[in-house]
Amino acid sequence: MKVITTRISEDYFKDLQMIEKEEHTDRAEVIRKLLAKGIKEWKVKRALELLREHKLTLRRAASIASISYVEMLDLASKHGIDIGYSSKDLERDMRSL
User: Fold this and answer.
1) Is residue 2 part of a domain?
2) What domain range is 90 assigned to?
């Protein structure tokens, strides 16, 4: 594990204290959970942006976002990204197997 140091606003500090109490855990664990969630959201958002711009394949977008191909296909559909293959197409193909 690596150690990082950062400055945060007083409001964020108060929010962290509130979450610590609610979660019954220490500050380091709260920060790790929030950071992991933020990174996950950023990766998904970035993968969707690149997919929308046709800069990568669906499979590569799923890899960048650290999710499955089917999850990425579903997200692309929900975000109106046309990849030429919908989740309904996938369901149909799965039934035919």
Assistant:
1) no
2) 10-96
52, 81 contact by CB (below 8 A): yes
- Per residue in 45-88, pLDDT tens? 999 999 999 899 899 999 999 999 999 989 998 999 987 766 67
* Residue at 3 is within a domain: no
pLDDT in tens, 7-27: 999 999 999 999 999 999 999
Is residue 1 domain-resident? no
* Cβ atoms within 10 Å of 19's Cβ, excluding its own: 16
Does residue 32 sit within a domain? yes
Question: According to the 3-state scheme, what is the secondary structure of 49-69?
Answer: HHHHCCCCCHHHHHHHHCCCH
Question: Using CA atoms, how far apart are residues 47 and 13, in angstroms rounded to an integer?
Answer: 31
Nearest in space to 72 (alpha carbons), one of 93, 92, 50, 94:
50
Domain total of the chain: 1
